Amino acid sequence: MTTLAGGRVIGLVVPEAADIVPAEAALMYPGLQFTAKGIALQSLSAAGYDEAIERVVPAAQSLAWRGVAAIMVVGTSLTFYRGAAFNQTLIDRLVLATGLPCSTMSAALVQGLEEMNVRRLAVVTAYSDNVNGLLTGFLTESGYDVRSLRSASVANRVGEAARTSEDDILHTGITAFQEAGDAEGILIVCGGLMTLGVTSRLEQRCGVPVVSSMPAALRTAAVIAGTSPPPLAGCGMLLGQAASSHHD
Known about the structure:
By secondary structure, the chain is α/β, with parallel strands linked by helices. It has ten helices and eight strands. It has two domains: about 5-105 and about 215-225, Rossmann fold; about 110-210, Rossmann fold (3-Layer(aba) Sandwich), CATH 3.40.50. The protein has helices at about 25-30, 45-50, 55-65, 75-80, 85-100, 105-115, 130-140, 165-180, 200-205, 215-225, and strands at about 10-15, 35-40, 70-75, 100-105, 120-125, 145-150, 185-190, 210. Helix 8 runs parallel beside helix 9 (about 200-205). The relative contact order is 0.16.
């Protein structure tokens, strides 16, 4: 196992109650080591996020005490639900509390969209209408034009989205892209959706880049930790190119 300088690892604040490192971490970057701290998010709703959000900074501090090199907050809706300014304020709070490079899954999505140079979006989620509305607000505030939005499934609790099949994600993405009319890219939002195996298929069908929550977040986490994550073949346009060194 190749770790970072001094044997440090990449810290992930995760929505689960248990300290579970997402499976995609080892699939994408087997040469890097990750560690996680869970915050026990109870429901994918504004009330659930309000109850859990104050555990994020203490979880990050716990990871910092373990000597991690950088911290990524996994959980897209947890970081977009109060809007773009709140997401940036959360990042600033994390940096101040830990003294480490920090980012969030929502910030990583925006970074990925910037790298792909897309503004008009077809969006796929695993959220309820209420959470989809919060997402649309965040994306609009961040300068994006949501031309269409469809849920591949509706997850009400952490872990439920992982049951959504790749075919369901693919077909929902194609439908959203067709409905959008002139989307420049497809955005898949929800860290629980397993997208590594479907991204290239969706790009080939629609001819535009696909940016999705977990791959974008892990890529950003590797970069802010001071590594140069290698391009990954077969995982879509974003992961297939060298990672930018400019991240919040």
